[in-house]
Amino acid sequence: MTIAGLAKLCLGRDEEAAVWLLRSVEANRNFPNEHFFLAAAQAHLGRMSEARAAAKAGLALNPTFTIRRFRVSAASDNPTYLAQRERVYEGMRKAGVSEE
Description:
Blueprint: H1 2-10, H2 14-27, H3 32-44, H4 48-61, H5 67-71, H6 79-95
Helix pairs in contact: 1-2, 1-3, 2-3, 3-4, 3-6
């Protein structure tokens, strides 16, 4: 569910991403990244209260999470992949996730 949601988020299919990522969070609330991905999708949809709540839930699980730390975990230097990740970072920023 997480992979499907993240793929949809990277492709700009935010409504579908939000559905998949919410399912993922509901299946197991103990993984922080799913909360951050959901926050990004909700932010892109303009659902700011939901986005901030998802970011807050992620930070409760991983209080040291930052966009910078997530950025350095990129698994590839492929330009398309990196461009898609930029979209995720932007959504996280809108949701209130710290850059540093």
